[in-house]
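Pasting two entries for a bug report.
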Amino acid sequence: MASTVIHWNSNTSFSCPQCNHDTAAAPTKWEVYTCCNCGTRFARFPRLQRFLRHVGITCEFCTEGHPVPVDGQPFGFLRRRHNGAGADAEHQVEAWLYDTDEEPDHRNAVRYLNTRSGRADAMADIAHWRSFLGRTEDDLSPVLAVVVDDKFDPWGEGVTDEQQSALIRGSLEVYGVGVLRPHPKHGRFYADADTFTWGLIAPSGLEGIYTEQLPEALPARTPKS
């Protein structure tokens, strides 16, 4: 049974009335929202819930998709996900695949794969599906991953003023680079933590999976195998 829709306070237009978490990206009076932080469902006119459009979670943090290309070609995307509340809150990452079904309108032409604790693990799920849907079927060879480093502190030691300015402008990004391998027993790809190098500053737009070689824009010290 669906949870109760509660009244949404007009003085907190973007916030959940239960936990005050910013959860509605572009709120209107005629929709029912779901808080990404505590799961509360709310609307300006809860008594009209049967006639209102139920849009679920619309938080920009949780719904923004980050494309994951394979060798530069669109293949899937990552989406951040906020779980829990208070001290137990955590940010996870969803892996999605651009649908290959013959019906292009099927479920918005995307397929949910999995929710992981980090971007590298989510990309490993995309790499696993690439092995079955790519140009070479059942290709279980390791692949290289360029992953945005969400934990990097752009204000930390060793970051120059020029780099900080470029990070703010968006012309530079901080990456982790490593290998995604298939598990020897069950074949599912995983992020080989021992191969990853983190904190590499390079031009934006390089995140993705590379089956042969890394882009030249990355520093020479990144792993080659």
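Entry 2 (this is the one that rendered wrong in the viewer):
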Amino acid sequence: MATMQMMSAAGRRALGALALAGALVVTGCSSGPSADSIGETTADAIRDAGTVQFTMTSGEETFEGAAVYEEGDLSELRVETTTPGEERSEWVVDGEYWRAPGTARPERSGSVDPEEFVAAWDWAQVQEDMAAAATSIEAVEAREIDGLETHGFELVSEERTETWWVDDDGRLREYEFEFADGQSGGGTLFGYGDDVRIFEP
């Protein structure tokens, strides 16, 4: 049950890396980021920035948080989760997992593997894995987000379809997903490179 303290099955499915086979069919766009390297491009943008903040909605769960990367690896993480009737905060700092249900005092917990928790929220790796597992990636309609024109990409796998909106710098700004069973969600990434500091609670 330890993994349930991190997020529900729906949340894990929304972020979990895929291991799917199949030929990749790519339709590129004429300018901006390229469809055939969109996973690597968006992942590099996060790692190069060093920090990113995020929101996600999946079913009845909402998530928001921040991630800090050092030398390309996710090193510090904060996630706040809200579900009907429950709120919790979780952190990984200095390789240790902390949690605080609701307004309770944060406590170090051995119930969750810090590396597993970090892997579930490693946005750079998740984007690389999703693109690698996609059976098709196609350019779709652009979208203006916070005054920026972004390029749209639809990534289709056997498990789900995701649509990403990526700016000219290769930064994923907004995304939507829908699983084969009809469950859907989405969210935003923002604050690339902001001075984010995640301390031991």
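Dev reply: Rendering is fixed now. As a check, the viewer should reflect this: The first helix runs from residue 9 to 15.
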